[in-house]
Amino acid sequence: MSVIGTGYLGATHAACMAELGHEVIGVDVDDNKINQLTGGEVPFYEPGLPEILRRNLDDARLRFTADYADAAAFAHVHFLGVGTPQERGSYAADLTYVNAVIDTLVPLLEGDHLIVGKSTVPVGTAQALQERADALAGPDTNVEIAWNPEFLRESHGVEDTIHPDRIVIGLRDGSRAEGVLREVYASQIAEDIPFLVMDLATSELVKASANAFLATKISFINAVAEVCEAAGADVTKLADAIGYDERIGRKFLGAGLGFGGGCLPKDIRAFMARAGELGADQALTFLREVDAINMRQRERLVLMAKEFLGGSVMGRRITVLGAAFKANSDDVRDSPALSVAGQLNLAGADVSVFDPQAMGNARKVFPTLTYADTLDEALTGADLVILATEWRQFRDMDPRHVGELVAQRRIIDGRNVLDVDAWQAEGWTIGALGRSL
Ligand SMILES: NC(=O)c1ccc[n+]([C@@H]2O[C@H](COP(=O)([O-])OP(=O)(O)OC[C@H]3O[C@@H](n4cnc5c(N)ncnc54)[C@H](O)[C@@H]3O)[C@@H](O)[C@H]2O)c1
């Protein structure tokens, strides 16, 4: 099989498919990425992936190329995992890269081929790609497009690919691809992981709705957090209490700085845009509010920082702990932490950022911020510390030790993960979204 697009999704998928015993070729247009992967180096931080990559390169089940012709000749099943970012100036998904894969690959194919989309796309895309492929395929070539949305979580990518919660397969009418995909996922099927076969449109909508639901859950608790603050209540205790109801569940009820990353924000916007095109825009207007609640948490945190520093951050030294959009990742796409750091910087603060893995990516997006080499260096002399990404290293900080480094014992827990009593006992003033401390 081939895996086209070897970013967070594709590189993980390629290495894990090889780990399951398949022969895999990964394809990307980025020569640097291909060289790094060929050399056994994962171009991003994903726990467990480097070991799997190297093992399968060594066992010759896995290789990488920038040459589509190589993939066209080698494989009959092609996974498509290129990016579908938000289109500039619109909410819609930009399908340039997905279309480019079809335009480049299909004319090179001979015989019967199955292209299996994994990228997150607006409903209707698979059918449009089928028409595109049919127009490009040679007379003796038969290309079928199927969809197999991906649910992996960055930081748990390996586990989620090898042991997913479920496998969703979208097929066109009269398709004969189910058997091929059952072979691809034979080990998961043997583990009784649900294997759900449906039409193309439903499979595309499964992914969009799963992400919309998750985003809504986070914004729900953040909206409640705003009311808690106004009422002098505590959103963390509230979340624990409602989370025991198994219809609600405690996961994704962590109030704080909200969601970011390369998926949820753009996916809910693309979902709204597509619903609008289909004439069902009213159905998803609530996602506008979900988006607005989410973005508001970043502003609320900046406001809280100003209040903590007597109304203005001008010239004050602020340490922002975290740059990645979540812990155990180096992904800074639409990162709430960097958004807060950037806004404070623009408001005149002297901002120092530290992240265990995302410093390189953060520097590329926000070159004007100061990046500390170590956690202690970042904390030294701070007038205010903001915990913006929930890395264990930050959660486990010793309030006494940190107190000896900073200029002022003031901290805002943007993720509601610190032990408030322990910090207050060391003389810290602590603030958090959704709690009156
Ligand atoms: N990252 C995740 O956790 C995750 C989870 C589920 C779904 N997804 C979806 O998967 C898709 C990819 O996301 P990602 O995070 O891996 O993005 P990414 O930006 O990390 O990777 C995309 C890769 O595609 C390559 N590419 C672009 N055009 C190409 C072309 N014409 N031919 C070959 N390669 C090309 C890029 O160079 C890049 O390496 C998106 O639709 C995303 O929504 C991602």
UniProtKB/TrEMBL annotation:
Checking Pfam families in the record gives: UDPG_MGDP_dh, UDPG_MGDP_dh_C, UDPG_MGDP_dh_N
SMART domains linked to this entry: UDPG_MGDP_dh_C (SM00984)
A single GO molecular function, which one?
A: UDP-glucose 6-dehydrogenase activity
List positions binding substrate: F151, L152, R153, E154, K207, F252, L253, G254, A255, G256, G260, K326
Pathway the protein acts in:
Nucleotide-sugar biosynthesis; UDP-alpha-D-glucuronate biosynthesis; UDP-alpha-D-glucuronate from UDP-alpha-D-glucose: step 1/1
Q: Which residues form a coiled coil?
A: none
- Catalytic center residues: C263 (nucleophile)
* UniProt-listed Enzyme Commission number(s): 1.1.1.22
Q: Which UniProt keywords apply?
A: NAD, Oxidoreductase
Q: Per its UniProt entry, which superkingdom is the organism in?
A: Bacteria
Q: Which GO terms describe its biological process?
A: polysaccharide biosynthetic process; UDP-glucuronate biosynthetic process
Q: Where is the UDP-glucose/GDP-mannose dehydrogenase C-terminal domain?
A: 319-420
Can you tell me which residues bind NAD(+)?
A: D28, K33, T84, T120, E154, K266, R333
SUPFAM superfamilies per UniProt: 6-phosphogluconate dehydrogenase C-terminal domain-like, NAD(P)-binding Rossmann-fold domains, UDP-glucose/GDP-mannose dehydrogenase C-terminal domain
Q: Which family does it belong to?
A: Belongs to the UDP-glucose/GDP-mannose dehydrogenase family.
Can you name this protein?
UDP-glucose 6-dehydrogenase
